[in-house]
Every structure is written in C-alpha cells, then in structure tokens.
Amino acid sequence: MHQLDDAEVAQRLLYHLAHVFGCPDAVYIVGPARIQGGFDAAIFGFTLDRVPPSLAEPLILRLSRADADPERVKLETVVQNTLAEMGFPAPRVMVTESDPGILGGPFMVMTRLSGQTLAHGIEGLGAGTSLVGQLQLLFNLPAVLARIIDQWVAMQIRLHQLPAETLLRAVTAAGIDAEAITFEGQLARLRTIVERSDLIGLKPGLVWLEYHRPAQAQRLRSAMAIFIR
Predict the structure, then answer these.
(1) Predicted local distance difference test score (pLDDT) of residue 125
(2) Residue 186: which of 65, 79, 61 has the closest Cα?
(3) Within a domain: residue 30?
(4) 95 FRET partner, CA 20 to 30 A, in 48, 53, 63, 179?
(5) Which helix (H) or strand (E) is 64 found in, with range?
(6) Which of 67, 87, 111 is the last residue of a domain?
(7) Residue 24 belongs to a domain with what CATH number?
(8) What is the pLDDT of residue 120?
(9) What is the rounded CA–CA span in Å between residue 112 and residue 40?
(10) Residue 210 lies in a domain
C-alpha cells in the first residue's frame, strides 16, 4: 500500500470528514500538524471551520500503521468514550475507521484536551537547546520527574476508582469480546507474543504475573488502564 505523506493525509481526512458529517464546505483553520508522541501511531492536531458543532473545536487524528489491528481502534473508542461518560478526562472519539485504505491505516478522530503532556519541562533535552538551557533542564530534572510521577499516580488512582463493570457492559454492547480488556485476556495475549517470538527473557515475568494475580475487581481495573495513554 502506498504510504501517504502528510499533505495527502490532510487532504483525504478533510474529504472523509466532510462526507461523513455532510459538510462539503469544511476547511482547515489549523493543521493537520504532527504532534510529538505516539509510539505506534502518528498524531496530528488540527482545527476545522464550516463544520457541525461537534467538530468545531481543536481535534486530534491518531493514525495507526497500515498493519495495525483494526479491532484495536474500535476497542479504544469504546474505552475512551465510556471513560469520558464517567467523568474521567479521556478524549471523546467522534470518528473511528478501521479501513486502512482511507488514510493508510486505521484511525480515530477525537477531541483535543487542553493541558500539558507529562513530559512537559524535559522535552528540550537534546533538542538543540543551548548549553545553559541544557544545564538548567538537568538542574530541574529531579523536580520535574517528581511532578510527573505524582500526576501519573494521581490519575491512575482516579482511574482505578471507576466501576470497571460499566466498561465491561459497554464493550459487550459494542460486540467486542470482553476478554480483550480483562487481566486474563491481556495475560493470554502477552503469553502468545512471548511464545511466538521466543522472548526468553520475558518468560520469568509471565510466571510472576501468573502467581500474583490481583483480585477480580482489581484485574478489571488494571486491564482498563492499559488502554489509557
């Protein structure tokens, strides 16, 4: 499959959204422009004009690779929207497409939440910053890392306090096997990857997980946290 450049992605995305939402006069105000981040997907930020109210706000395109599992974007959509409905600060997904022929891979279009990334404050390390700037970043690094850890822990605690059963019902209602978000299902997936790729060094970790299973409610919440990035 031909790999699209950013200009082609922008053109096709606009055409697709205009068709799906019935707004043929839609235009870009901003972007799409790549955003740093995304380990297995390309992230773009953009803003539209002449569109329905649901699209008239800063948006994010998360474009997966062509060989990505199309069911993954469907599951992530259900997880994010369910968490958003429960009041958790997860971006609400407006468009989910599993057909890689549209943009070169499965993708999601979601709201862009305001705020800073966890890595804010250390993103300048090694990025052409002056020597004085690098030294200042290194000096501030312990405090920045402590802030990142505190924020991450606080969000994980908040996430684990949500009723996991609500998500299970939403996943099942979407026609997705609920095992995909359970601890046991994720453990089985990891076991398959380790065995298929013969990742010998990871096998002791699987054994540890086997013998340290959390309680049922905690297993559901632990698996739920995997899909929030």
Answers:
(1) 55
(2) 79
(3) yes
(4) 179
(5) strand 59-64
(6) 111
(7) 3.30.200.20
(8) 59
(9) 19
(10) yes
Work out the end-to-end distance of the chain between its first and last CA atoms, rounded to an integer number of angstroms.
Answer: 28
Residues making up the chain, counted from first to last: 229
Burial label, 93 (beta-carbon count in 10 A; 0-12, 13-18, 19+):
buried
Cα(165)–Cα(176) distance, integer angstroms: 15
State both tokens at 100: 């890689």
Number of domains in the chain: 2
- Cα–Cα distance for residue pair 143/88, rounded to 1 Å: 26
Residue 116 to residue 73: CA distance in whole angstroms: 24
Does 198 map to a domain?
yes
Question: Could you tell me the two tokens for 57?
Answer: 């706000």
Query: In this structure, are residues 47 and 83 in contact, taking their beta carbons and an 8 Å threshold?
Result: no
Whole-angstrom distance, CA of residue 10 vs CA of residue 4: 10
* Domain range enclosing 200: 164-225
CA-angle at 206, arms to 200 and 211, nearest 5°: 140
| Among candidate residues 56, 55, 32, the one with its CA nearest the CA of residue 45 | 32
Across-strand partners of 64?
Answer: 41
pLDDT at 128: 58
User: 184 with 88, same domain?
Assistant: no
Examine residue 18 and state whether it is found in any structural domain, yes or no. Answer: yes
With helix as H, strand as E and coil as C, how does 8-24 read?
A: HHHHHHHHHHHHHCCCC
Could you tell me the pLDDT band of residue 49, with boundaries at 50, 70 and 90?
A: very high
Cis before 32? omega within 30: yes
What is the distance between the alpha carbons of residues 133 and 172, in angstroms, rounded to a whole number?
Answer: 51
- Let me know whether 103 and 172 are in one domain: no
